[in-house]
């Protein structure tokens, strides 16, 4: 199957002042976390150390990120994915729309210096991998109503739910495969390979 080209990410509306402050705080916490983990490892990095490095209180860290795993993984994928899906033609097959949306998000993330660290931690830290599985399942459930609108199916449709959840788990397997291979392969090509399985089988 011919790979679908990676689309440009859908531009997001400019955030207001309050939202910009929140994003700045989240970014500071995440950057501090990445630096600490790179220097001393995941297990040795504490919320108190992260707070000190980010110049915020431990309670602020917890308010923005309830668990350390959430800092590493991030939780800002639902809105970009929804925007990318809404930008696709209404009569486009669900799998094609999902392929575009996922690759658009990955295209935005490839310049993120934390991406390689996140994938390495997915491979090496069971808690991070478990949280990622939970997060992807939640994201898939939230996308089902949007895809139900596009297909005329009910939001509770079992086949739709199975497809979206399976695609989400496929993305996790892609990330693990990429990390296990030393993060040298083309990540968007790996996404195409994984999603081709749903269309063509093995």
From TrEMBL:
Record-linked Pfam families: TetR_C_14, TetR_N
InterPro entries: Homeodomain-like_sf, HTH-type_TetR-like_transc_reg, HTH_TetR, MftR_C
HTH tetR-type domain: residues covered: 23-83
SUPFAM superfamilies linked to this entry: Homeodomain-like
Entry annotated with the keyword NAD: no
Keyword Signal assigned: no
PANTHER family assigned to the protein according to its UniProt record, in alphabetical order: HTH-TYPE TRANSCRIPTIONAL REGULATOR BETI, HTH-TYPE TRANSCRIPTIONAL REGULATOR RUTR
Protein name: TetR family transcriptional regulator
Biological source species: Streptomyces luteolus
